Amino acid sequence: MTISSGTLNNASTDRIEKQILLKAPRSRVWRAVSNAEEFGKWFCVDFNGKQFVAGQSVQGNITYPGYEHLVMDVLVERVEPEHHLSFRWHPAAVDVSVDYSPEPTTLVVFELSEVDSGTLLRVVESGFDQIPAARRAEAFRMNNGGWEEQLVNIEKHVAKG
User: Fold this and answer.
1) What is the CATH number of domain 3-159?
2) The Activator of Hsp90 ATPase homologue 1/2-like C-terminal domain covers which part of the protein (predicted)?
């Protein structure tokens, strides 16, 4: 498994970019990314049968140990079958006593490309420079590590079939 990381330039604080080559057909990877219930299995969130539909919000209870008290809330922006899924959310919104709704969101984009040995999955999260300064660096740090873990999770998930 190889996870590549990068930014447009090494000094960028606005975006996280990760990619992984998955040894699975694009249709399989797309199902893991675009089907809310299946997405939840590897991302550790229970969307309870909800669907990812452009223009609609989806909420689900987080199932990751230690974070079960949190609800993940995303606004789906764009869905292009087997190629692109994007949503907006509040990064690192882990304090239940804080109302994050007035804050700007970041944009998470999943892009799939078919390659000879499987599917290249690219994940880009951007918009961190708009997050309030008091929590910007921590949100970036948490999500940077989080995306590395999530790419390992999806790799294991699609390998199961």
Assistant:
1) 3.30.530.20
2) 23-158
- What tokens appear for 78 in the block? 């764009």
Say if residues 45 and 61 touch (Cβ distance below 8 Å): yes
Rounded CA separation 103/105 (Å) = 6
| E strand segments, the chain | 3-6, 15-22, 45-46, 57-62, 71-80, 84-89, 106-115, 118-126
Check residue 8 and report its DSSP letter. S
Q: Which tokens go with 71? A: 């609800």
Question: Given the structure tokens 């452009």, which residue do they identify?
Answer: 54
Q: The whole model's pTM is what?
A: 0.93
For residues 114, 42, 44, 133, the Cα torsion angle rounded to the nearest 10 degrees is -30
100-143 residue pLDDT tens: 999 999 999 999 999 999 999 999 999 999 999 999 999 999 99
The predicted-structure confidence for 2-12, as pLDDT tens digits, reads as follows 566 554 444 57
Q: Are strands 57-62 and 71-80 parallel, antiparallel or unpaired?
A: antiparallel
Q: What's the whole-number average pLDDT of the chain? A: 93
Longest Cα separation, the chain: 48
Residue with tokens 């229970």: 46
Could you tell me if 136 and 13 are in contact, meaning their C-beta atoms sit under 8 angstroms apart? yes
